[in-house]
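Model the whole thing, not chain by chain.
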Amino acid sequence: MVTIKEIAKECGVSTATVSNILNGKKNVSDETRAKVMAVVERTGYTLNYVARGLRRQKTQTIGIIAEDIGQFTTPEMIEGVMEVCEDNGYKTIVQNLRFYSRWNDIWFDNEEMCNTMIYPVVQEMAAIQVDGIIYIAGHARKISKYPTQFNIPSVLTYAYSQDESVPSVVIDDEDAARVMVKYLIDHGHRKIGVLAGEQDNLHAKLRVRGYQKALYDAGILYNPDLIIYAGWGKEFGYRESAKMLEKGVTAVFCMSDQIAGGLYQYLFEHGMQAGKDISVVGFDNQVISDYFLPGLTTTKIDLVGIGRTAMNLLLDKLDGKETEKLIKVPCKPIKRQSVCKIK
Amino acid sequence: MVTIKEIAKECGVSTATVSNILNGKKNVSDETRAKVMAVVERTGYTLNYVARGLRRQKTQTIGIIAEDIGQFTTPEMIEGVMEVCEDNGYKTIVQNLRFYSRWNDIWFDNEEMCNTMIYPVVQEMAAIQVDGIIYIAGHARKISKYPTQFNIPSVLTYAYSQDESVPSVVIDDEDAARVMVKYLIDHGHRKIGVLAGEQDNLHAKLRVRGYQKALYDAGILYNPDLIIYAGWGKEFGYRESAKMLEKGVTAVFCMSDQIAGGLYQYLFEHGMQAGKDISVVGFDNQVISDYFLPGLTTTKIDLVGIGRTAMNLLLDKLDGKETEKLIKVPCKPIKRQSVCKIK
DNA sequence: TCAGTTTAATTAAACGATTAACCTGACATA
DNA sequence: TATGTCAGGTTAATCGTTTAATTAAACTGA
C-alpha cells in the first residue's frame, strides 16, 4: 500500500503538504497541488483510516450494538441508522449479541444478565474508538445499567433508558394500541377481546393501557376477563383462539401479527373468516400481515424511522447539543380487510 | 482514557513490559505481572485497537459489504458471517449499499453500474484496513469485475464470481428446483405450470433448468408454454394466476413465496384452495410461507449456512490455504399442506 | 572458573497520518 | 527604512501499541 510518505518523496515535498492537499487546506500553490494530485491518482493512494483515527482521536465510526439481528425489528432499525450515518460521513461497525438465537428465546429482563452481556461489548466499542453508540434492544424493557464509564455518547432504541445521560427512542405502544382499538370501536364493536403477550412484558402492559384508554374514551366498561395473556407467537394465538371466541367477542385485538396468524389458522380450520365472521387486528405490520387472507389490519411500527431518529439524536449529542431524553415515535394504522362493521 | 504508558509509569516498568503482559507473553516475572495487572484492573484500562491495528497492520476486522440489508436474504447471511467471526475473534464492519431501497428496485445486472458502486466501498474497506471482505449480493448474477487491486482476500455470496481469485458461495438453484418439481411429479402431477421471475434473471434460468431436468427424469415432455415469466412479487403472481389456471395445470411451481402469495390470493377470491383444488409450491421458505393457509410447501435456502460457509472460506484464505472456487449450498424442501395427490 | 544460556527486563524504532509551530521570502504600508 | 502581513511551505512531535534488538544479571554445568 502506498503511503503519504512515498507520495511526498516522489513529489519532493513534505508529508504535511500532501496531507494538507488531501484535506483541502489552503496555503498550497496550484502548481504543487496539481503535481501531488497527479501522483495520488497514478499510484492509487488510499488513505489509511486507522492511522488517521489514531492521530485524530476520532474514527468517524458509530458502533451499532444489536441484541439480536435475527429479531424482526432489528434490521430495519439498523438500516435507518446506517442511512443517516452515510449521509453524515460516518462508518458503522456492528456487534450482534445474538440474545435470542444464542439462548433460545430467553426474554432478557434479568438485569444482572443483561449487564454482563452489555458491558464487554461497550468496552469493545471503546477499544475500537467509536465516536458514538446506538444500542438496539430486542424488545421494550427498562435498561437500568447501561455502562457510561467509557464516556461514549450513546442512544438506546426500542428500550427505555433509566439513565439521564443516555436518551432513548421507543415506539408509542400505548397510543398505537388506543388508536387500533378506537378503530374497532368506530366500527361498532363493544366487546373486544385481547390476545396479549406475557403479562409482565412492558409492550403488553403499555398496549393494555392503550386498550383501556380507548374503551374509557368511548364510555365502555373495561372487563379484564376479555384479556388473555399468552405469548407473542403464532402457536399461542392458535391455542387460545377457542377460549377467546367462547367469550363472545366480536373483535380481537392481537398484540402481534403472529398471534393474529394463529387466530387466522383457527378460523380457517373452522370455516370462518376474519373481516366477515369476526374482526381481527394485529400489531407490527410485519411482512406476513400483507399475505393474510383477507389482509390483516394492523399497526405499522416505523422501524427505519426509529433508527433515523436515534442516529440524528446521537449526531446532536456529538455536536454537544442538549437533547431530549425520550422520544416516542408514533405508529400508523394500516387498514386492510380484517375488520368489518357491526350492524 | 488510560493508556499503556500511564500504566507503565505508575508501575515503574517500561511500556514494552506492560504490552507483553497484556499479550500473555512469557519472560515476565510473576511479581511484575501481578503488580501491572492490579493497576490495569484498578484503572479500567482498555486496549486501543486503533493503535494496535496501525502497528500490527492487522485489524482483526472483516468488512461485510451488503448490496441491500433490506433484501430479505441479507440479514441471515450476515448473521452467519458474524457468528463465525465472533468464534474466531474477528470484528465486523458493515457497509450497506442500499441498492434496491435507493434506486427503487432496479435490478443490478448492469456491470458498469455495479462497478461504479462496488469499487469505492472496497476502497473504503481498504482504508479501514480490514483483513478480509465478505460481499453479499442481493440476487444471483455474475460479478465480473470485483476490484482485486487492493489485495484484500474476499468471498462473494449469492452471486457468481467471474474471477479466479475471488471464490463464491451460492445456493444450488437448479437442484432445488429439480427436487421441488420431482416432489410434485411424485404426487402424480404431470402438467406443472411455472410462475417464474424475469426471463433474463439467473435464478430463473437455473430454476427452469431444474424444472426441465425433473420432467426429463420422469419422462415428461417439456412444454415451454407452461412457463410464465412475470416478476418476483405478489402482484405478479396475482396478475398471472388466471392465465396460468386456464392452461389446465394441476400444480404450479412458483419461483418465490411472494408469487405463491399472489396465487393464493387469487384462489381465495375465487373460492378455491391450494392443496385441494390445485397444488402450489413456493421457493425461499420466507416467514410468510408458514402463515399461508394452508401452509405452503416450499424450499428453504440455508442463508445462515451460506454466511457461515463463506466466512469459513475466507478464514481459510486468510490462513493462506488453497480454497474451492465455487461452493453450492444445497436447499431443503419444507413440506406443508399446499400439495395434494392426484388420483 | 568461565563460557554459555536463560530470565526479565529495557530501548527505541516503527506503523501512517495530522497539526501546531516555525520558517522564508515577497510584497505592502507608513 | 522599518515593520507587518501573507503565501507557501517545512519540521518535528504526536496519537497508543508492538516488537526487534539489546542489555544485564543470574544461573548452569563441566
